[in-house]
Amino acid sequence: MNVTDYMIDLGKKARKASRQMLAASTADKNGALLAIASELDAQRASIVAENQRDLEAGRAAGLDAALIDRLELNDARIDGMIEGLSQVAALPDPCGEITDMKNRPSGIQVGKQRVPLGVIGIIYESRPNVTVDAASLCLKAGNATILRGGKEAIHSNKAIAKCIELGLEKTGLPKDAVQVVETTDRAAVGALITMPEYVDVIVPRGGRGLIERISADARVSVIKHLDGICHVFIDKDADLKKAHDIALNSKTHRYGVCNAMETLLVHADVAKEVLPGLRKDYDAKGVELRGCARTLDILPGIETASEEDWDTEYLAPVLAIKVVSSFEEAVDHINTHSSQHTESIVTENYTMARQFIAQVDSASVMINASTRFADGFEYGLGAEIGISTDKIHARGPVGLEGLTSQKWVVMGDGHIRV
């Protein structure tokens, strides 16, 4: 069977399984998640052994230390996958909920019911634990899913897929509700994203190159984010202690994450007070600073920021700083250079805070809080499939509700339209 035929076969099985999943109860889905967790625990030795094959191949191929670390599975990470399954099982089931039910003048009742999206294709790189994360969220939301992991994790993903299949079979749910692509041929991705008759949504999780390719070539709807160019704006009415702590945490809590601050904007009225102290703490953490001309006047010796810096997601200990003359200049800079991920204002001025929320066009807009809070777990979603900077269908952290849609429900009692 060639790759295209293989992917079509997976698609047909997934479509059939998605229709069977419509009848699955919350108890069925939770039971399957817990059964998968039990299988992961029972099969951990074989999972680690298969993971070692991937690690050896990765080292031989020259993967860098960071990629090897993301690829590795050990007892602690398997425990984390098991705990994640238990947490998803404990989350409320969004499916079947009917809301906005209203009586119409005709006598009918009209409302909306939350339903699964259907078949979700997920394409990701490196980390084999994503296989469990993605499968658990799709299952709890009542979907079937086709998972295509990176070639560097093929043996690990196959071992995890076996546990998922056994867990599904033990609880009577269709084993094809979760399928892991077992070929490393890149043509599998091209097929997956061009099968709208079998796949309803694609979720890419990986580097910019992967996401740009999928966005350009897909014939299926895509939930994605390209960059996390996040901003913190320290307003002239900011509490400077809060400003210092938020600006430091937003950048240095973790560097290689999409919700880390990449550009700091500071109102000119407070720049001389707040920037020297921040520079001291950034220097202590090894953060390279790049600033505009006004920033360099306050912090001599740092690098000059280029126009490219305002449009760069560093994912590293590098920070661009700009001193602005007004609230309006800050908002204009954000809306011009932001990737529409997460922005935060530090201010004690209620009016400015409200204006910031209204005028900044990003998926998450914050007042007096670190950008690092832009996360499904922190938002109370329990878990997330990723963060979307799209405006349709989901925006921001995508949890269970983001993996569902709504359909109209009409209730009558023999009503006819006249």
Instruction: Return residue spans where pLDDT drops below 50 for at least 5 consecutive residues.
Output: none
Let me know the average pLDDT.
95
Number of E strands: 17
Rg for CA atoms? 24 Å
Question: Proportion of β residues?
Answer: 15-25%
Q: Roughly how much helix do the residues carry, as a percent range?
A: 40-55%
**End-to-end CA span:** 56 Å
The side-by-side strand order for the widest beta sheet comes to 11-10-12-9-8-13-14
Global geometry: globular
Determine the structural class based on helices, strands and strand pairing: alpha/beta
Number of helices: 14
Quaternary state of this entry equals: single chain
For the report, how would you describe the main beta sheet?
Answer: 7 strands, parallel
